[in-house]
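Predict the structure of RNase H type-1 domain-containing protein.
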Amino acid sequence: MNPVVVQWNPPNPGWIKLNTDGSSRGNPGQSSYGGIIRNNHGGLICGYMGRLGYCVSLASEIWGIMRGLRLIKEQNLNNVIIETDCQAAIMLITVRKVDDSDPLSSLINACRKDMMDLRCYMVHVKREGNRCADLLAKIGGYLDQGEYIFHRDPPLELISPLIDDAYRRN
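Done. Here is the predicted structure for RNase H type-1 domain-containing protein.
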């Protein structure tokens, strides 16, 4: 039996892909998020990262999705596939009813509204297929609390993984 190689896969022509991730040093703990938007050739459109401060890991995952959705709107992008390795975040945003008393309800509702306004959908990806977003989320942990950085060009730490993703295929 051959092992299955998990990697980032580009979207079909005419679509772009947003990969998001959250990072937390403890749960709850110091948290950050990151994301990357790429075209169907694996080329970087833009990326982002930010530091939240102290929160639960699920909050950092949802913040990463919400910031990515806002960036899609700001950049006037459409036909977007959103990938995250957090199944719980996908369920909260796309399926499960969330009570207004839930501390994450405003974030979840913001994501739902943005998804309705955009032509996009969300899917689960294994962690190995989300490594560029994971790297940005981890780098975001070194920012000042509340800081958010938008990248038109990749940070140096991201160049090698981007190239690997663009040229490595099954």
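The two ends are 16 Å apart (CA to CA).
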